[in-house]
Amino acid sequence: MNWSPKKGGPVSAAVLSLGLLLAGCADPGDGESREGRGADRKSASSSKPHGYVAGAEEAAEQQSRLVLGDAESGEMQILDLIEGRTRPLGRMGKGAELVTDGRFAYANSSRGSKVFDSGAWMVDHGDHLHYYRAKARGLGAVRGKQPEHVYSSPWLTAFTFADGTARLVDHAQLEKGRIRTTGFLDGIGRGPVVPFKENALVPVAGTGGDSTVEVRDRKGRKKTSLGVKCPQLRGAAVTRTGVVFGCADGALFITEKQKKLAPEKIPFGRKVPGDERPDAFHSRSLGTTLTARAGDTGVWVLNVAEREWKLIETGPVAAVNSAGEGTPLLVLDNSGTLKAYEISTGKQLARKKLLSSPPKAKDVSRAVIEIDANRAYVNDMAARKVHEIDYHDSLRKARSFSLDFRPSEMVETGR
């Protein structure tokens, strides 16, 4: 069976980590951050080609890369999906977990977060896209006690730690290879700090387990409180239209309307047991179709655009993801079988025994499905491979990449 998904607009493929890179396509005055303060804006704009980025090569297609890590040995490599080969990237702490914002990979361990520039990114200019590639490199570390979350906007990257603190970092400086802190937050509520444009959305604990969200500036100073309650806040996602926080009664969606932040609840529509609540969301980069485990029952799908939750009873799963409208829901079950479901009906469309052996109990939480507009990627720890899946074509295995270490951590960049 084949799927013919509708092609999403360019906005759906944007990435958070891009920020202020492409001054050449904007008003010439925007070039000041790249060409230097006080430089002649007109001459700088006219002397640089459209979409010029210093130190990067512009490409005609998406430059997808996989950042891979072995949580036991600490070895890290980067797999260039265009070239089909790997290169050493550095080392991460033992037991570290990898997360990404679309360009940068963050290796979170007990002592802090190591920051790596994958050297692959994409810039959305509304009516067209620019793709870039550069040399991957390590940038250093953001110190803190057990980072639990990292999220980015073009202006800020927020690191949230287990001790109730958070650090705000200038994202434009990360693009230049420098880690510059703009603000430090203390005594925040349980849950991730998530940048939204130039501000940070900060969970604040209230009475009875309820949380609200404050808006802080880039220095961490309070600007306002959004006031809407989010009971037992946990988990978040960044979409192309706003930020989603997971709540005991559904989701809190925060977007911008008429230049003001507008909070809105998206309820489950029924009472959901605590063990079936989402605690982490997975999607295509900036996608508005979010997926999450629903305990042993199956998978939640949240269509942010339609403000609708759907529960698909797949049974227990190790990993889940979807590219969004017109594409199937992909789940990897605990036996190592990859399955595709039609989201609207919950009907199973295809299945393929994929992993060489079922994930061990200690590895189930490290199983990953990374997804983009055309392919999905699944890490096979036992076989030391990454499988590339054409989910438009009955889960056909397009390629497999052999590695010399266990890919227990994997994130995709360049999207």
Can you walk me through this structure?
The protein has about 425 residues and is mainly beta. It is about 5% helix and about 45% strand. It is built from three helices and 35 strands. The chain has helices at about 30-35, 40-45, 170-175, and strands at about 55-60, 65-70, 75-80, 85-90, 95-100, 105-110, 110-115, 120-125, 130-135, 135-145, 145-150, 155-160, 165-170, 180-185, 195, 200-205, 210-215, 220-225, 230, 235-240, 240-245, 250-255, 260-265, 290-295, 300-305, 310, 315-320, 330-335, 335-340, 350-355, 370, 375-380, 385-390, 395-400, 410-415. The strands form nine sheets. Strands 15, 16, 17, 18 and 19 form a five-stranded antiparallel sheet that branches. A four-stranded antiparallel sheet has the order 4-3-2-35, with no helix packed on it. A hairpin with a 4-residue loop joins strand 8 (about 120-125) and strand 9. The protein is globular and about 50 Å long. The two termini are about 25 Å apart. The model is unreliable at about 1-45 (pLDDT under 50).
Biggest sheet: strands, sense, closure? 5 strands, antiparallel
Radius of gyration: 21 Å
- By DSSP (H or I, 4+ residues per run), the number of helices equals 3
| Mass-distribution shape | globular
What's the number of extended β-strand segments? 35
* Share in β-strands: over 45%
- Rounded average pLDDT: 89
Low-confidence sequence ranges: 1-45
Name the helicity range.
under 10%
Indicate the structural class: mainly beta
Give the CA-CA distance, first to last residue.
Answer: 27 Å
